[in-house]
Amino acid sequence: MTRTLIEHVDTELGRWLHAMRLPPADLAADVAMLWFGDGQTHYRRDRILPRGCVHLLINLGPRQFLVTAAGERIPFDDFWISGIQDRYLDTEAPAGACLLGVAFAPGGAWPYLPMPQNVLRGFNGEMAAVLGDGAMTLRQRLLERDDVEARFVLVEDWLRRQRRPHRVRHAAVASALQAFSRAGTPRIAALARDCGVSELRLGQLFDREVGLSPKVWSRLVRFQACLSAMRDGIGSACELADRFGYADQAHMSREVRAFSGYAPSELMARPSPDAMTVVVA
After folding, report:
1. pTM above 0.90?
2. Which residues, other chains included, contact 5 with Cβ-Cβ below 8 Å and sequence gap of 6+?
3. What is the pLDDT of residues 190-200, one digit of tens each?
4. What tens digit of pLDDT does each residue of 3-60 get?
């Protein structure tokens, strides 16, 4: 079975090649996927909603921009790391894009990066500042290849060399992540007991290895599930609020706005190139 899916997209939102690759078995516990995109959009700015994972982003084409809340455009030219986010990011690609990315699984970046993951919470910046010149060497080798598969193989080999064997995910963190994936929003105190640690200890471990507190992670998981249901047209706003454990519809709206910058109706009205991205302008 092939691990790489390549598709050519041609819609009113733009034209681009998009490739996704499942990681090999030895990386699968830590890496959710590798992806590649090359093309031009017909819009100016998009908004990336928080996905609950760390991304490595390698720019192989024109300059990209991260747009801050104050409207500052920060250029992205080579190799960036995007730490775990608890709010949206606005980006621009005025001359098109050619990007290769690594999306780590929740908590999966912990064995590959030299610092606790909470240090990178909300961080978006140059990878060389985190991993040194080796990151730029990888980018140069990628620029020398045209084949998507060959580029993915280079990144997989680089990830193997980056892995720190002594950094093993704590059993309590692994158990907690599994519980969140099954139950969505379990009570944190009960979750800690089930994981065999105190609530304080679970918070410390989760913060170190995932980058968010269990409470914020729970909110993010609930938002993602609610967003998926909204996109699928499952239930009214009141029904969704009840289904996902919000106190009421107003509570749900506040949470959706906190993570996306939009009220639910505004968010659903925005064109969407993928499940966790919407067009801003």
Report:
1. yes
2. 19, 20, 21
3. 999 999 999 99
4. 899 999 999 999 999 999 999 999 999 999 999 999 999 999 999 999 999 999 999 9
Residues of the chain with CATH 1.10.10.60: 171-276
d(CA 127, CA 77): 11
Phi then psi for residue 103, to 5 deg, are: -100, 110
Q: Three-state secondary structure along 79-139?
A: EEEECCCCCCEEEECCCCEEEEEEEECCCCCCCCCCCCHHHHCCCEEECHHHHCCHHHHHH
Query: Beta strand pairing status for 73-76 and 45-48?
Result: unpaired
Supply the CATH classification number for the domain 171-276.
1.10.10.60
**Nearest C-alpha neighbor of 225 from the set 195, 181, 273:** 181
Query: Domain 4-162 carries which CATH code?
Result: 2.60.120.10
Instruction: Kindly state the tokens that stand for 43.
Output: 């819009």
- Going by their DSSP bridges, the two strands 89-92 and 45-48 should be labelled as antiparallel
**What is the rounded CA–CA span in Å between residue 45 and residue 68?**
12
